[in-house]
Design brief:
The protein has 537 residues and is an alpha/beta fold. The protein contains 18 helices and ten strands. The chain has two domains: 284 residues, 3-Layer(aba) Sandwich (Rossmann fold), CATH 3.40.50.1820; 221 residues, no CATH class. Helix 3 packs across helix 18 and helix 4 packs across helix 5.
């Protein structure tokens, strides 16, 4: 343990003899602040005989990647960070101070980030028509990982022309959807890829996902949560009784009187919590253990909803709809509505904030018809075609943070508008009945397993119930799994260059991840008889 402790808390000076790193200027912490971008020629279609992708193609596209060889020594492993559903630059922090830095510094490893197809600047086509999106699937994405590992080059790195799998131990890391892709890559290509860590990895998808709000319901400040539950119940009572006059007054109170869709209204007032598919402000999901990464907007919201010293003109709003609910006040309504108006509605660039349709309506079908390449469109396509997890309210009779005006059809309509049938591939159109979950769950679902696959989740993550440690999964025991008590969404991916200064559960998670990787590399060494050796550290 002393050796491990030294690895985790010791100096971060690079080992002598390494070649120049492919990095930009160093920050105050001595770590790079930018990285050189490289281009990789990737296949568009890894399955040229599959009718799912007809008409098939032999064409290729340019996929971006970055790497950091600060800690690399010949014989060390390659750590591949799967960028997921964002631009690759957004993952640089994982090379700088995060999980890849932690693992690479402990093992003389090379850190790499690979941008996912259809995100950032890694586009197979000039636009994202339905036909062109047919290659945006889980199986194509994880095949990218395997093909890249077999053919990637790392200029100016000793041996960088030959650091390919399976001759070099490649260890993948991904968080969220990329965590699922990491796990699936290990299932499909276990003979090629040596190991992987799936953090908050989505391994099980469902059509509707009301469980998204459960961690907030259970762990948020209960006076705040209870007030929202009761307000939502009263809102839904007005909707159930079709009290159009009261509903209009309610929308006006929130500054959203021009919204015609009750679903749009319900989503907009849920933004401080996390509206279905849209998060224009930070939510519970963006909470983090380290202040530099934290976004505590949620608690600011709750502090407003429960403010005992709210001005009289705010608290007076709590009675404005009481005559529609048998004289019962809507405790907290004024503070809730005031927060939405000041923090959400005020972001609308419309010159006339009375008309908020331009900003908060999802009913403009021409918007969805825009086939310009964008990460939002790619994410929606994956959601509609195979990932699902449409965020939903709880049923009547169960406390809900989201109005029951939201249902499956509310999200499904976006799929219908966005992805009409094109001239080439009718099979690329998402089903109007919902995503084909089998395409995603076929890799093992909650029972996913592969050699040297580690799975780590957060106990208070909104996505926990589609992850390995979901409440609906059977209880499993084993050294390859870790649940961060009170943890959020892939909290282990963040680091501060000083593990000893981290909170207990985060420090324990990082130490566990390093132990897992050290064990895998010992196994590699025993099997191959050369390469990485712990005694080199």
């Amino acid at each position: 343990m002393k050796l491990l402790s030294a690895l985790l808390t010791g100096t971060l000076v690079a080992f002598a003899g390494h070649t120049s790193a492919q990095v930009g200027p160093l920050g105050d912490n001595g770590r790079p602040t930018s990285y050189t971008v490289y281009n990789f020629t990737q296949r568009i279609d890894h399955f040229p005989n599959s009718p799912r992708y007809a008409p098939n193609t032999n064409a290729s596209f340019t996929q971006r990647y970055w790497f950091d060889n600060t800690y690399y020594k010949p014989g060390g492993p390659v750590f591949l960070y799967i960028a997921g559903e964002v631009e690759g630059e957004h993952r640089w922090s994982n090379l700088e101070t995060g999980i890849i830095q932690i693992l690479a510094s402990a093992t003389n490893g090379l850190g790499v980030i690979l941008e996912n197809r259809y995100y950032g600047q890694s586009w197979p086509f000039e636009n994202s028509s339905t036909d062109n999106l047919r290659f945006l699937t889980t199986e194509q994405t994880i095949a990218d990982n395997a093909y890249f590992a077999q053919h990637a080059k790392f200029p100016n790195v000793t041996g960088g022309e030959n650091l390919t799998a399976p001759g070099t131990p490649w260890i993948l890391y991904g968080g969220s959807l990329a965590g699922g892709q990491t796990a699936f890559s290990l299932v499909e290509y276990s003979g090629l890829l040596w190991g992987g860590i799936a953090a908050s990895g989505v391994v099980h998808v469902v059509h509707g996902y009301p469980e998204w709000y459960n961690p907030i319901q259970e762990n948020g400040p209960q006076d705040c949560i209870t007030r929202i539950n009761k307000i939502v119940d009263k809102i839904d009572h007005l909707i159930q009784t079709n009290n159009t006059q009261a509903i209009q007054k309610l929308k006006d109170i929130f500054g959203l009187g021009s919204l015609s869709s009750l679903g749009d209204f319900a989503m907009t007032i849920a933004f401080p919590l996390g509206g279905p598919m849209n998060y224009p402000t930070n939510t519970w999901q963006e909470l983090n253990w380290y202040p530099a990464y934290d976004a505590p907007d949620f608690f600011a919201f709750c502090n407003n909803v429960t403010d005992l010293n709210a001005p009289a003109d705010i608290t007076a709003v709590d009675l404005q709809l009481a005559n529609y609910t048998h004289g019962l006040p809507w405790t907290g309504l004024g503070a809730y509505a005031n927060y939405v108006k000041e923090v959400i509605v005020s972001t609308c660039p419309s010159e006339d904030l009375i008309d908020t349709t331009e900003c908060f309506s999802t009913q403009n079908q021409s918007y969805y018809a825009d086939i310009t390449n964008s990460g939002d469109r790619s994410y929606l396509y994956s959601t509609c075609s195979e990932q699902g997890a449409y965020q939903l309210p709880q049923p009547y009779g169960t406390p809900s943070l989201l109005s029951r005006a939201i249902d499956l059809n509310y999200t499904q309509q976006w799929c219908t508008w966005a992805f009409p049938e094109g001239p080439l591939s009718p099979q690329a159109v998402p089903s109007p009945d919902g995503p084909n979950l089998t395409w995603y769950n076929k890799y093992g679902d909650f029972n996913i397993s592969a050699p040297r696959l580690a799975l780590i989740d957060g106990g208070s993550d909104v996505w926990r119930d589609v992850c390995y440690h979901g409440h609906n999964a059977s209880t499993r025991y084993g050294e390859n799994q870790f649940l961060i008590t009170g943890g959020g969404h892939h909290w282990d991916s963040y680091g501060i260059l000083n593990i000893s200064a981290e909170p207990d559960f985060i420090r324990a998670a990082h130490q566990w991840e390093v132990r897992q990787v050290l064990t895998w590399l010992d196994e590699w060494n025993r099997k191959h008889g050369s390469g990485w050796k712990r005694t080199e550290l």
